[in-house]
Amino acid sequence: MELKEYFPMWEKLTTAQQSRLLSASDQRSYKKGQIVHNGLTDCTGLFLIQSGQLRAYTISDEGREITMYRLFERDICLFSASCIMRSIQFDIVIEAEKDTKVWLIQAEAYKKVMEESAPLANYTNEIMASRFSDVMWLMDQIMWKSFDRRLAAFLLEESSLENTSTLKITHEIIGNHLGTAREVVTRMLRYFQSEGMVKLSRGTVELTDMDKLEKLSNK
Fold first, then answer.
1. Gyration radius from the chain CA atoms
2. Calpha distance 11→14 (Å, rounded)
3. Residue among 60, 69, 179, 178 nearest 128 (CA)
4. DSSP letters along 57-106, please?
5. Which helix (H) or strand (E) holds 46?
6. pLDDT, one tens digit for every residue, the chain (219 residues)
7. The pTM is what?
8. I need a labelling partner for 61 at 20 to 30 A (CA). Which of 67, 112, 117, 145 fits?
């Protein structure tokens, strides 16, 4: 996929601006589990996802993780270049959940073009607004939705993403996504199992009653 395909307003950029972005871009590959951006001190640049899957998460003072959002094919990650936006101070870590290929645009080059081009600035603001919406939705889930409903929704989302009802995932990883301790996840999954919604085995959660999980997640 060419770089211009990620920008619906590409033709509104001047030839010089297009050239600047192209010359400041290169393709990179990351292995599953690799950290590709490590917080505020790391102004990596903009990630444009060609294939694979990235996870953006934050870490509490106690070392507990919680997933903020995920990035899929054709998504653009701005928080990995938060240094180009003075008002943005999100300390976010980004890791590859799957083997991933990206375009990486140098932050300073993107910032210069954005300062010159209203269409690119507007497009960037739209992406930023979308990410803030994701974060606000997450905060709403944490504050007002019980953990059993959040866990049911997460399992259904994972099943949809992986296109299987048998998830190769540990209780610790689920806890990292949802911002809670592994022991809490284990207790709730055991309850789900007693209700016939899942079947547990080492490193695997099999979803056995999608309808029950769906009803629970929508309560």
1. 19
2. 8
3. 69
4. EEE-TTS-EEEEEEE-TT-EE-GGGGGGSTT-----EEEESS-EEEEEE-
5. strand 46-51
6. 899 999 999 999 999 999 999 999 999 999 999 999 887 666 778 999 999 999 999 888 888 899 988 999 999 988 777 777 666 666 789 999 999 999 999 989 999 999 999 999 999 989 988 888 888 888 888 888 899 999 999 999 999 999 999 999 999 999 999 999 999 999 999 999 999 999 999 999 999 999 999 999 987
7. 0.78
8. 145
